[in-house]
Design goal:
single chain; Butyryl-Coa Dehydrogenase, subunit A, domain 1; Butyryl-CoA Dehydrogenase, subunit A, domain 2; Butyryl-CoA Dehydrogenase, subunit A, domain 3; 12 helices; 13% strand
């Protein structure tokens, strides 16, 4: 599939996501029907290396695809986007590992738990003994492999954050996904109980962040010369932008219907607030697209300070999306409180998604200010 074909596939998939959003929310998990349609669409192969049947499409295509899906349903934009993006994580692993993971398939559905403190790993003969429990297991419901972060303690006491890859059979999902927003993601906890993971399936997490594990040497596509964190930030941030755009579109549709039914315009005293919210959504999108262009222009040539600034800007865009969506939800009227009103769902989804660890507002804003003052950044997740 070409980039344009992927974008068209997203447009074709979006109506199903919009139609099934409330049903998925009630089910507290992605619907089989929606995941099957996403499989058929071919979108899961976007970031998969060509040697495994993927397309190696760049992050600009990823940006458009996830935004289209997220405007229809932020929860499914989140799940599908992370499934796509985690193929980038898998490309960090040695080719012999990827050969096993992909087999004859052109994609893998691999949830990834970023909370490194969720588990522990101890070196043993041939690998690491892994145990723990992880929250935020987006994709665990339909996953085929899983990525879990651990703190690994060596014999000399040195502690290293690592990311371990294992088949889904080694993982136990825990159905605890009772949450106010992003309900349809089914991002429940999962546990691993004393599983030995082969040495080659464990990678140092900081090496994955800075591209120091040879991914750009294995694959020539510009995609693989891109730092991981801005890609992760887009995967988590675009559903927030999609929610804001979706809320604005639903607000316009619902208020227009009221005007047509009554023949009059009410609430003109709120027009300034509505305009501010709408323009903030536009500004958030422009800010994200500016970061996208800069990432694609600089990629691995950008140092930690530049990468930190990308993440601060995406964080600010997410904050604007959350504030704008909540403003829209507060002005649509009493009907906006109904659970089957998409504006209600958009508001709860963006308020939940904006809490992703990559958007730690205080830390990102503090580092932005430190850079203004010529001081070193402190957040290591860049």
């Amino acid at each position: 599939m070409t980039p344009d074909e992927c974008i068209q596939a997203a447009h074709e998939l979006a109506p199903l996501l919009r139609e099934k959003a409330r049903e998925a929310e009630v089910a507290r998990r992605p619907l089989d029907e929606v995941i099957d349609a996403a499989r058929t669409s071919g979108l899961f192969s976007m970031m998969v290396p060509k040697r495994y049947g993927g397309y190696e499409h760049d992050i600009d295509t990823f940006f458009e695809v996830v935004l289209i899906l997220a405007e229809a349903d932020p929860s499914m934009g989140w799940v599908i986007g992370f499934y796509i993006e985690h193929a980038f994580w898998l490309a960090e692993y040695p080719e012999e590992v990827q050969d096993v993971v992909y087999g004859d398939d052109a994609y893998v559905l691999a949830p990834a738990a970023l909370n490194i403190w969720g588990g522990t790993a101890a070196p043993v003969d041939g690998g690491y003994r892994v145990a723990g429990r992880w929250s935020w297991g987006t994709g665990i419901v339909h996953g085929t492999w899983a990525l879990a972060g651990c703190l690994t303690t060596a014999a000399d006491g040195a502690v290293t954050p690592m990311m371990f890859l294992m088949p889904i059979e080694d993982v136990e999902p825990i159905d605890n996904w009772h949450i106010a927003g992003m309900c349809g993601t089914g991002s429940m906890d999962f546990a691993i109980d004393d599983v030995v993971v082969p040495t080659e399936r464990g990678l140092p997490f900081l090496g994955m962040l800075d591209g120091g594990l040879g991914i750009a040497d294995r694959y020539s596509s510009p995609l693989y010369a891109t730092p991981l964190m801005p890609i992760l930030a887009f995967a988590a941030g675009l559903p927030c932008l999609g929610a804001a755009r979706g809320a604005r579109a639903a607000f316009s549709e619902q208020v227009r219907a009221k005007i047509e039914a009554s023949g009059s315009v009410k609430g003109e005293g709120n027009f300034g607030l509505i305009a501010e919210a709408s323009l903030s959504i536009d500004a958030a999108e422009l800010l994200m697209r500016a970061v996208l262009a800069d990432v694609m222009a600089r990629r691995a040539d950008a140092g930690p300070e530049e990468r930190s600034e990308w993440l601060s800007r995406i964080t600010h865009a997410v904050v604007m999306c959350r504030q704008a969506t909540n403003t829209i939800a507060s002005l649509v009227g009493a009907s906006g409180a109904m659970l089957d009103n998409p504006i209600q769902r958009f508001a709860r989804d963006v308020s939940t998604a904006a809490n992703h660890i990559v958007f730690d507002r205080e830390s990102r804003y503090a580092d932005h200010t430190r850079q203004l003052l010529g001081q070193p950044i402190t957040n290591p997740m860049v």
